[in-house]
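Researcher: Let's try something more involved. This one mixes different molecule types, so please make sure each is placed in the same coordinate frame as the others.
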Amino acid sequence: MTHNQKSADVSFESLLKIFTIPEGPDSTLTQIEAELSHNLNQFLREHIVAEEKPLTEIERDFSDPAIPEQPQFVSEHTDHLMNTLVAHSVHTSAPSFIGHMTSALPYFLMPLSKIMIALNQNLVKIETSKAFTPLERQVLGMLHRLIYRQHDGFYQQWMHSASHSLGAFCSGGTIANITALWVARNNTLKATSDFPGIEQAGIGQALAYYGYKGLAILVSERGHYSLKKAADVLGIGQQGLVSIATDEHNRIVIDDLQQKIAELKQQGIKPFAVVGVAGTTETGNIDPLGDIADICHHEQCHFHVDAAWGGATLLSDKYRHLLSGIELADSVTIDAHKQLYIPMGAGMVLFKDPDAMKAVEHHAQYILRHGSKDLGSHTLEGSRSGIAMLLYSSMHIISRPGYGMLIDQGIEKARYFAELIQESTDFELVSEPELCLLTYRYVPENIAATMHKATKEQCLTLNNALNELTQFIQKTQRETGRSFVSRTQLNPARWYHHPTVVFRVVLANPLTSREILQAILQQQREIARLAPQLMANISRIAYSIENSTPMP
Amino acid sequence: MTHNQKSADVSFESLLKIFTIPEGPDSTLTQIEAELSHNLNQFLREHIVAEEKPLTEIERDFSDPAIPEQPQFVSEHTDHLMNTLVAHSVHTSAPSFIGHMTSALPYFLMPLSKIMIALNQNLVKIETSKAFTPLERQVLGMLHRLIYRQHDGFYQQWMHSASHSLGAFCSGGTIANITALWVARNNTLKATSDFPGIEQAGIGQALAYYGYKGLAILVSERGHYSLKKAADVLGIGQQGLVSIATDEHNRIVIDDLQQKIAELKQQGIKPFAVVGVAGTTETGNIDPLGDIADICHHEQCHFHVDAAWGGATLLSDKYRHLLSGIELADSVTIDAHKQLYIPMGAGMVLFKDPDAMKAVEHHAQYILRHGSKDLGSHTLEGSRSGIAMLLYSSMHIISRPGYGMLIDQGIEKARYFAELIQESTDFELVSEPELCLLTYRYVPENIAATMHKATKEQCLTLNNALNELTQFIQKTQRETGRSFVSRTQLNPARWYHHPTVVFRVVLANPLTSREILQAILQQQREIARLAPQLMANISRIAYSIENSTPMP
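Model: All components are placed in one shared frame. Result:
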């Protein structure tokens, strides 16, 4: 459709052309590609975060539910995309975009991604992936070794074994967590001589056979929301996802974990998995993994570690120890599209025991036949892309020490930012950085002192007013598009566990400079001044607390 | 890491460089990209299917479980990839690669994929996707309209509604099917005034509350293997996936469906979903969707259509009618990476009722807040790429009539190939093409006549020998790397339902010519001659049948 037609007619010849390799460096497509690369680079250089066009206006450009009846020229369509889509997308790789775990990508991945797209391998089966299959098995081996540090003989034996998998690549941490808990569930309620196993009989019969009233997964109250989906989808129910208290550092309270396990057992409910968090999504903290492992070992319970974000810390000689105990986990989730700097869609789950995934093994007649090395026989997903290739390349081009350095700089930058906040009289550090993530909020000068004097009830009133201000600042900063921090809600002990809205920053982008961090605080101060009513309300509440007069 | 270092030391400056936009057309990366494009195009032009290197040898190149301690230059690594990976990958877009549903891609997607990779949007939330979110909602609207043909007002009301989703993008058909059945399960066992719903209470309690002994999903024996995974993962158990007989055209037998539903109900088991198949994976046939819809309506049962592969037929004016009744489905799976010619990783599930997905809605504090338009509140997956963009572009550049033409040519080519097989005295057409998929096998001349005379027992013996030959031909053809057909096992009524190994071809690539199809048959004849023992065995069995002598 790239050539000479403006009419509604589509010819079969023009269709054949779009499937034919463009010839030489002067082809229309090559020219479009060069221009596109130039324009994209310009966008990435000029735009910070996103343009200030309201979503409702953007939606107008994407409101026609009819599939076009007229073909568009590639060049014309590319222009359309640049104007309607690219110009109003989010510049996730901007150094001032520090709000989420989606960060910058190494530029060498742009050309290398072409290999993935152009070859369009399907990793579900060798017949459509060939060398990509051993490559993916090697990458899984690398991650397994990073976590479990088994000897070389172990990997020689299992990495390429047709009937084993050391783990699975998947679209992201959610599918990885679901896969881990699926395996755990099936191994707990497995087949015996007189029971066909939960995978055949379902939960109802499995509970009856094993004499349990229900199943439970335990995780700290900081566990990722994907675990709620996992409990739902796996048929356990969200009530079976038991929340454990955290301490002032957002880490699971071991005593509470033990008590909850005892309570569940007394109720006839089987606690079949405990999830340790290695890098909580909202505060970046790490559970005491060794202690959880001990309990799981004692209780014969599957120990899963959700290290979707924090797992990459294992690449740092300096901070690897923070995840100590992870090697005792039965399974671990790691997302390559977070701190391994790979494009979106690269999650992984690793299993300590090469036999673990047999609990979810499946076959078919046309693929995944017994004895084949098809990766699809152990994955929740079916067809999958060859994105493992990009991680393989990054491991080689950046190397382990390079990744370590990226991790180190993030953590150290977060410490710097925490100091900057603590030195400021108008900001409050809410959670300290253990990895490269921290939370804080703007608290107008002199208000902090008042908060410490306030009663529990007064504190709630003041906190609610501050929450409104934090929300306003975060939204306004996002909308002005110069920089971006995210926000979440915590319940800090220091503020009587009142709901407290905070800014959340993740400092993974190596180009985020100290100057940018200083500027972000300055912008937030300035935005606060744009809300005189919210500010006045806070002052009024503080005044009434200071003077202990009843509030109107 | 692209510049001047050969030592093990990685400097932070070199790390910064890899995250910095490469300047101008003379940068190292631009040069590498140009060379890579050239080499990839050369590979795609020169290689047919794959090189003849045994998998065990390829595995040797991917056997080191250690993450490299030394960084590699991008150029050096690219060469390494070309030699070890690309040279031994599968040329899925070759016109003679007709074995699977992974086919050619339009070349305009190569430059456009850059936008997806470089912007690295995360569709789970607006904050990391902005305009990509309305775009994805529009694409879902387009597919919804293609299936359900609602009026414009419907799409105006629901397409961009914050609290609704017309469906979900996901990594592929498996997740799409799981999502549909998850929604169906949760809507069947939903919350009431005195029950919190299955999503909270789990299957055990839900069955007890509703008074069911179990749950069942019904699908024809040709249903995709992902449904077994779905039944397992959703806690229903694979025994709850009830298989319904098919007729001689591989379509579900409606009487058997009705009977099985009645039996289940008598056993106290709730048949909560029936899956109609619109394009079976192994034979490409379409169930009588309207009839299934009637039964589901009568039984108040969720009607899901797995149109992962066949759904694209709706784009053809000429063949759209083959899927008649699909508009009555409660949900439909369509894979864009199959007959919509999009790179791997683009599945979709659509729901007729904009409220259906409320059954799986979820929220979190830091994203997916109530009232947000974050797509992640209705998806099984969390972080997701902006691949919807590529489908949006293809819809615009190819247009609806263009897609229709691609579908038409596939179906008509399959009919041609079927005729070619039927005209040959040494090939047997096992399943006729309804869409662009058919199965057949090589049956040496004169053997066909013998088979028709054989008793059931004799036929089994002969069939087993033919199965060995079919396997040999398929494997050898794959290994010689000139062309590729896949194989599966069917149980045709005509051969007493004996297991029958067949070649399976999918004719989606518009560049697959009639000459190529003729050549593929000729190659298969020639390969058969390379197995004189198998051929002699078949002759011997045929001889003993013809002469009715007992076989040794």
